[in-house]
Amino acid sequence: MPITLALAGNPNCGKTTLFNALTGSTQHVGNWPGVTVEKKEGSLKGKRDVTLVDLPGIYSLSPYSPEERVSRTFLLNNNAGAVISIVDASNLERNLLLTTQLLELGIPIVVALNMMDVVEKNGGHIDAAALSRRIGCPVVPISALKGKGLKELGDTALSAAKGGIAPPPLAFDGEVETALQTIQGLIHGLVAPARERWVAIKLFERDEDILSQTALDPQQREVLANTIAACESSLDDDAVSLITDQRYRAIAHLTEGCIARAQGRPSISDSIDKVVTNRYLALPIFAVIMFLVYFLSVTTIGSMATDWVNDSLFGEFLPGALTGWLESIHCADWLISLLVDGILAGIGAVLGFLPQMLVLFFLLAVLEDSGYMARIAFILDRLFRRFGLSGKSFIPMLIGTGCGVPGIMASRTIESPADRRMTVMTTTFIPCSAKLPIIALIAGALFGGAWWVAPSAYFVGIAAIILSGILLKKTKLFAGEAAPFVMELPAYHLPGLKGVLVHMWERGKSFVKKAGTIIFLASGLVWLLSSFNWRFEMVEETQSMLADIGGVIAPLFAPLGFGDWRAAVAMVTGLVAKENVVSTFGILYGFAEVAEDGAEIWANLQAAFSPLAAYGFLVFNLLCAPCFAAIGAMKREFGSARWTLFAVGYQTGLAYTTSFCIYQLGTWISGGGFGLGTAASLVVLAGFLYLLLRPARRTPQSLATT
Ligand code: GDP
Ligand code: MG
Question: 0.70 cut: is pTM over it?
């Protein structure tokens, strides 16, 4: 008989790690809430008829956030045979809050005490047997990371599901319990007996969804309202807080005497956090770490490998070998050109950056898995909130360093619609992995691999997000206070090599896949358009259709210093996929042909761009409209074409003006004379500063309190 087991727990308690260990799959293990916005399914290792569902991380079963809705709907409707309530044992009381709610669902529950390795390392102890007797359901100590206790957990959950016996809900005390009994009396017969307690508590909390699903007549509704109101006024607190308070009391009672903590010794994590999340040191440390990550991947280790791949493999060896072979089988000239100058040059220009990307992915996975990324979200929440932004906005950005599409999707965890929209609009400012080749190309070709170029791209992205946040918050569209952001900080631990490598490969794989599909096609198209004129005669690039098309767009970018038709074309192909920017340059500068003299496209780029214009080009590509996939994701999250257009317009406008100011002011400052462009850029800058610094719009609420 098929059985479904559900995995429910707070964010960061190790659900996904456990899910992967039990199913043998490789879901992304992240160190922040929101990674698992949707539920994931897999079958239990060795048991094909047992389905395991990884629910999003939640703190409660109230219908407030999208994650809570997903989890609650699933638990209430899909009849999981049993729920594994996974808790972080190193933070037991807080984690049990959700467990107390699961106990009310009338479904068999098994509590998995995860992170027992952390508890033991800190010298603590938990009496699982005693806890199990008090709660009234099985309690299994495990370590998902170390793979301990998993077999027993699986077996226990299976037999719980087969037995079908739900644990008793917790009894509360005093007037709250009396009120709950009254409500249970009201709904008796109206709901399934196993759900009575759950519905009674939700009705007490004035849960609209449950109220509308329960067929109470007007008279009963009045009794309900009066019961709640009487209890609230007598205990002088609101209903939701009363229930939470009862839960914590029950938890204190459950765990009393079951937990032994080591005395007086601060854990290693706490000691590290004293420094790393220190009010003054946190941001400088973060800056240094991100600098090192980009420096290591783009400028040092990664670039040595990339140089080899670009210069030798795709620069000389492959084109030479392929041309030789094609000539030996008397292949038509145009076909040789398509294959060598078009497709191989295009794909090669992009794949050449794979080593750098893999180093970057590796380092990001280490930061993520060690627990540091969770701290960054926490640190930036402090900073962001000062500007009225939610720290939750930073999570999509972190995910966006891999790819903007999941980054944009992760914004779903933000409750306030205004904040969510703003995050969707600004997430792609952070350089995603597809933009990395552009950064590396500009850094290498025009700045001699200077150490600051790659990290600066990251900080330009963050600055664009923060400044956009401040600016947009002051408009009517986005006004409002940011909601505070709570999350658990998991203990630091040494990242597992396997997990990090898997994660690195997962990200790298999608990049390679893209090279084989979208970039393959786009390279062919760019070659076609750049090799023929409108009468389909094979011509020099400068006479080609593409040169004509680029020539129409190029003047738009002349004020930014890169009015070359090739740059214009590269930006347009970048809309399909950002990797295309580099592959287009590769083809247009005849990457494969000039490679023999060793100078390949760098020399061409140096001739076409001044360093200022090149940096402007980089900034433009970082900030402008993202690729079509990301625009599609934006449209999905906004649910509106108008908002999507507005966002794309804002992004491109910001990219254009920033790049314009960089080029014009930079030229002026470096002694290029004061011209019309300089004046215009000063006006733009002044306008920007005005929007940034003007007083915030007052919401009616803040008017009332001042
Ligand atoms: P989720 O948000 O509940 O899905 O949690 P994850 O599975 O993403 O795990 C959060 C963090 O806790 C990751 O860094 C995991 O490596 C770590 N983690 C998970 N289980 C354990 C465990 O048993 N022991 C230790 N020390 N760390 C764990
Ligand atoms: Mg997860």
Answer: no
